[in-house]
Amino acid sequence: MRSSRLKLIAFVSVMSLSAIVPPAVAQVPPVEASVSVDENDGIDPPILSGDETPEELGLTGEEPLLPPAPTDTEPPETLAAAAVNCKGKSQATIAKTYYRGPGKVYLRCGTKDWGYRHLVAKGRWSASFDKKINRTIWSGVITRDMPGERIYEDVRVQCPPTVFKVVTNPRYYGKNPKIDPQGIITAYKPNKLAEEETLC
Questions:
Q1: What's the predicted TM-score (pTM) here?
Q2: Are strands 162-169 and 183-188 parallel, antiparallel or unpaired?
Q3: Residue among 145, 91, 141 at smallest CA distance from 115
Q4: Phi and psi, residue 198, nearest 5°
Q5: Which of 13, 48, 154, 178 has its CA 20 to 30 A from that of 111?
Q6: Exposed (0-12), middle (13-18) or buried (19+): which is 43, by Cβ within 10 Å?
Q7: How many whole angstroms separate alpha carbon 117 and alpha carbon 108?
Q8: How far apart are CA 130 and CA 136, in angstroms?
Q9: Where does residue 165 rank: exposed (0-12), middle (13-18), buried (19+ CB within 10 A)?
Q10: Does residue 173 contact residue 109 with C-beta atoms inside 8 Å?
Q11: 193 burial class (0-12, 13-18, 19+ CB within 10 angstroms)?
Q12: Which one, of 59, 173, 152, 62, lies nearest residue 101 by Cα?
């Protein structure tokens, strides 16, 4: 009887302890997988399929963008602005700024031999001509590049073919070194090509 009583006390004690002490197989928080690191201690880049959405790539839409391409139509006020900028101003005054990516190419007021006043004297300044200068500097081919002369050409292979040239000086103006860079000297459509148009 006493033996049975002792067994009962031992059983109750074990059951009481099991209610207090957690089982040996307790839930352990999952361990995060280690990040793969190469020999240079850099994190291996993820392999992309090319179908990821901007959200999956972590893009917010506020990232810096490339400079915008020139528009097809030049606002007419920029033509008038060039004339106003040069009225009674020195040859060094910037009449208009053109772009090639982040780079700038200036059209200064100039004289009858170069710049804005030269284009006006030759009867070339118009919305169409301004647009051609803009396009040629932005996306044309640089066919000559030396210290005092850089030529941009816009070649359109078509019938009739068209070529437009913008001649610039990316350095200082020889007669006045304070004008640096001199910028656009002249712009024109070569006469030789104009004659070839009759072949089409």
A1: 0.58
A2: antiparallel
A3: 91
A4: -70, -15
A5: 154
A6: exposed
A7: 9
A8: 10
A9: buried
A10: no
A11: middle
A12: 152
The residue among 17, 30, 101, 41 whose CA lies nearest residue 65 is 101
Dist CA 184 CA 110 (whole Å): 9
Is 70 exceeded by the pLDDT of residue 158?
yes
Structure tokens at 194: 């104009």
pLDDT in tens, 10-35: 554 545 444 444 444 445 455 554 44
Q: How many CA atoms lie within 13 A of 35 on its CB side?
A: 9
Q: List strand residue ranges (DSSP E) for the chain, in order.
A: 94-100, 103-108, 141-146, 149-156, 162-169, 183-188
The size of the chain, in residues, is 200
Q: What is the pLDDT of residues 75-89, one digit of tens each?
A: 445 677 888 889 999
Q: Which of 68, 194, 64 is nearest to 139 (CA)?
A: 68
Beta strands in 129-197 (DSSP E): 141-146, 149-156, 162-169, 183-188
